[in-house]
Amino acid sequence: MASQLIEACAGATGALVSTWALYPIDTLKTRLQAELGGSGALSYFDKRLYAGLFNGIGMKSVQIVASSFTFFYTYEHLKALVEKRSTGKARKMTATTNVAIATLAGMVNVLVTMPLDTIATRYQCRDNKASSASEKKKDDSATDGTSVEKEKDGALYRGLLISLFLSINPGVNFTVFEQLKRHHQERLRVKLGRPPGRSPPQLSAKASFVLGALAKCIATLTTYPAIRTKVLLQGPGGHRYKGSNDLERAIDAFRQVLHFEGVTGLYKGAQPQLLKTVFAAALMLMIKEKISAAQKMALRQLTASKQ
Question: Which is more confident, 21 or 305?
Fold first, then answer.
């Protein structure tokens, strides 16, 4: 229990620091993703895009701490259960099991913290006054980023199905990383003149970081149309997408993106998304590992002093 709390607290702290450091980029990508294009749409050269870049940072901080704590605590708890039920050599988890646990933890996290995610998204869009002309005709209040009280019940969970689907992102990321890793190791083996069948060369820290960042970019781009659709549903104009259930609303949002923005619209905001995702993941994990190691050392010293 103590180790699970340590990992959860360390993960939440790391995520909070990385969020603060990269918050303006996060706001930029959210505003771009949440707006359906048309005449008067936002662009990178529009000064309206950069107004109030720290708007909603308090709510975002609450959301990211709750989300990261839930994810890491659930992940560590499930991992401990799997290891407890395993015996002998099977106690060492396989990569497939690890990915499955991470995906399940992600789904639990979505179910618990999605209302906070939706509210945080709307706060970030609150100062975005650049709704297109077509959007204004449909909803003059689209820029009110926090108004959900006039909407139907379930507004805070709009986009739930896609959010659950996006829990596969760690699995996609890991699969891509493993393929890149094998290809790189094979090239190293040939370069070093090692015969086939021997243990592959170890990756350097630099190679691991580069391959990890590249894998994260590929995984993000692979699932990005779903990410864009999710933000459209969660955003201030999410109620305009029609359907009797979440899937139908997602399909309608997808169709409207293609109609107003074309295929390239599915990747609107991808540049700041990639920049934020890669650096946030690297910074969060670095801070998490440092805090986790320090907390475990302090716990061991405290336990030893009581004996």
Answer: 21
Determine the length of the chain.
Answer: 307
More confident: 232 or 129: 232
In contact, 122 and 143? CB cutoff 8 Å: no
CA-nearest of 236, 72, 262, 252 to 170 is: 72
Gap between the Cα atoms of 264 and 259, Å rounded: 11
Long-range CB pairs of 61-66, under 8 A, 24+ apart, other chains included: 61/16, 61/19, 61/20, 62/116, 62/120, 63/113, 63/116, 63/117, 63/119, 63/120, 64/12, 64/15, 64/16, 64/19, 65/12, 65/15, 65/16, 66/112, 66/113, 66/116
Residue 262: per-residue pLDDT: 92
Note the Cα 196 to chain centre separation in Å.
38
Residue 204: pLDDT band (50, 70, 90) is confident
